[in-house]
Each structure stands twice: as structure tokens, then as C-alpha cells.
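Cont'd.
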Amino acid sequence: MERILIIEDERDVNGLLAQTLQEDGYETKSAYNGMEGIKFLREGSFDMVLLDLMLPFKSGDEVLREIRKNSDIPVIIISAKDMVRTKIDLLTIGADDYITKPFDLGEVSARVASNLRRYHQADSKKQIVYKELHMDTEAKSVTVEGVVLELTSKEYQLFELFLKFPNKVFSKANLYETIWGEEYLGDDNVIKTHISNLRNKIKKANSKIEYIETVWGLGYRLAK
Amino acid sequence: MERILIIEDERDVNGLLAQTLQEDGYETKSAYNGMEGIKFLREGSFDMVLLDLMLPFKSGDEVLREIRKNSDIPVIIISAKDMVRTKIDLLTIGADDYITKPFDLGEVSARVASNLRRYHQADSKKQIVYKELHMDTEAKSVTVEGVVLELTSKEYQLFELFLKFPNKVFSKANLYETIWGEEYLGDDNVIKTHISNLRNKIKKANSKIEYIETVWGLGYRLAK
DNA sequence: TATGTATTAAACAAATTGTAACAATTCAGC
DNA sequence: GCTGAATTGTTACAATTTGTTTAATACATA
């Protein structure tokens, strides 16, 4: 399970965050000042830190600097709305994101999820594993249930795009412009054919899973 | 590769920035006045703009306003040290960061990297949460109380409009012209049908909440 | 030239969209 | 409160758009 450390001195705010994140399925630990936060970080392993800027004893940016000395886990800053100037500096120091008070709990959930996803993606950039599929972006090879797919260049590029952005719906214009690098003038035949060929090759490799999903009227994406 | 547009009239400063950024592994393009800068932006796709404030023909803040009309890429302002007052205004217009002259090249690198990272991370913006509803504008998916709605393209577009402008009342002409991109000639049947279908799908997802409100004689809007 | 790859074309299938006819609702004026 | 004209809502179906597949042709590379 993913563990999140919440460093926030206001007890009710801390509790609220903890409760929300627990409902989202994370394990949380609460610290009520910077020194305590750093202590917990040394002791346990965490996947993320929510860090308030205004802390007693040791201010948030000091804590952040301390964290960054020996860790690259995502840190989301919680700050008062009017601290615009500091935002920029914090991102420079190495914060990953920030949320301004008063915050919407739904937004907190979204940000946390998004940052965690990115973090976990970052250390497996070269190997993409999805369901029964394995892509090596260095070797440009793809296997489905152990069977190697012999893909052409265009097929591979399409597939890699889908796998790199698992939720995004790619419009045809989108696909065309990123892969072909030219302006899309409405001729989607090429794309449709390649998609078809790609699907066929996947199917022939004994895959029962459909990897590429059609989103009617919008485009294509990786199937869930 | 990431592309950065440098809009700066002093040739040696421009060149220095270009060189530094190229060494950092970016592709750069140089413009020497505001008009040229805007022209380049229209033609090519950039990931970031470095923008000098004091430019011939068109001042930096005009250029910034122009950029913000159709893009949200990070813009870093380069300004003389004594123009402190403007900083805040620029951040209000939509600048992401600022660097004062004379600048340290190491700092430029750091700021550029930080802003680019944040920009590419900014996908939390793409999540719209409203009451029990969650819309992912990347994945083009909508869930109500955890249930995924299977929307058609038109239905989705309508819904996204409402959610993006939560208080605005959209007249039918308004909706028709933004979504269909054609002149509205008074036939509101299409819209009514789509709204009806959309409401149905929401209702079938067990939602007790009415998300789309009719404003009699005026149009529709997101319900409060 | 031989081979694989990319593109185009065309015929077919599927889903969405628009239309039309009718039902329900709202609101102004009595 | 009624009443009815205006506005909005619903439904089913036809027309249109969009997607799939197969095959043939063009293109590139060795």
C-alpha cells in the first residue's frame, strides 16, 4: 500500500487530509511540525509528502530542502492562497506540485493520485508493462503473452504513444501530427489502416485482450 | 525535443540565452521583436517562451496577452532589475515566472527546467470535479458517483462546456455555434435532443443530482 | 530487383446524429 | 387558480457520419 506523510501543524486540517486520503486507500502518517516530519521520513519509507509551508520550529521550505537531500519522492506543498511569489521558488527548490488553502478535497485526491502515478512511472520509463503486454522502448520491441510482435515503425510508434499515456484519448489529428509531424488535413485513412494492422498483429499473437480501444467520434486510446 | 522561443531584442543577450539553453539540450528559436515572436508562435509549436519586457514595436506585456489568447505554455519574463512593480501584474496577466537582468545563467537553466517540469505535470488541471461528478478532459471520461458515463462526442462536448463555465447560461445559439461551429438558424431541436439524452444517461447512472438546469427562455447551465 | 512498408481505394459495418411528430411543462394574462 | 400559447422534453427512426477490413498500388531500402 502507498504511504503518505502529512506535515501540517493545524490538527483539524491534518486530520481532514488524513481521512480523505485513507478513504482513497492510502496509508497515512501525520506530523505536526517540521522536525517531527523529518524524523518520520528517516524512520519509515514513504511514497509521498504533503507539506504545509507555515510550520513551527522549522519552516516548510527548510523541510523541503532537507527532503531533497536524499530523496526524490513527490512533495506537494500546501500554502495560503496569497503566497504567489513563493510558488515559483518552491518549484525551483524541488516541490512537485502545490495546493492552495482553502482546498477542495476532491482536488487533493486528484493531485495526489496524479503525482503518485507520475512518480511510479518515472522509474520504469524504459520498460512499459501493461496487462499481458511488455514493451521495451530502448529495444523497440513488444511482446504479448511472451510472443514477440513484429511491428513496423509506424505501428510501433502508435502503440508506444498509447502506452505512454494510458488514459488519454488521441484524436486522429493528434496522432497524425505527433507521429507524421505534418499538419493533419482530414485524411484519416492511413491511421485507420495502421490501427487495423496493429490490432491484427496483436490478435494473432494469441492475445485475448483488446489493447486499442475506439472512442467513437473522438479517436483511439489504450483500452482499460 | 523541447523547443523554447526566445523573444529578446538585444542580440548578444538573445544569443547568450540560446547558447545556454542549447547546452542544456533544448532546441531554441530567436525572435528580435514582439511581432516576430508572435509570428513564430503561430507557425511552430513551442514548449516555452522567454520574453523580454522592453521590446521594439510591441511591448512584452502585449505579447504575453497575445500568447495567452490561445496557449497556456510557460512564459518566463526577463526584465530589468528595477521593474519590481510590474512583476505582480505580469503574474496576474499570466506569466509563469520572471528573471531580472543581469541574470545568472545557472539560474536561467534552473528556472527553465522547473517551469517545464511543472508545465508537463500540470495535468491536474485537466480534472474537473463537481459535486459527485468527475470529468477527465484528457481521457474524455465522466463518472457520476463512481459510475462511468458512456457519452457520445456531442454529449461530451456539451457537458464539458457546462463544467468549464459553471455559472454561465448558454443560449442555444451559443451552444450551437461553439460546438457545431456553424451559424445558428433557430432550429433548436438537435440541442434539445442531445440535452435530453445526456440527462438520461446521468439519471441512469443512479445520480440523484440534476446537473443540467434549464433557464427558461434563455438556455441551459450547470445546476447549482 | 526483391522485400517489406506505407498509402490509397473501395466496399461494408456500426454508431451517432438529426429529424419529425408528439408529449409535457412553464408562464402570462385573465 | 384556469387557460392556452410558447417553450421545452421525449421518442423512434432515417440519414449521415465514422470506423473496419481487405486488397491493390506506390514507395523505399537493401
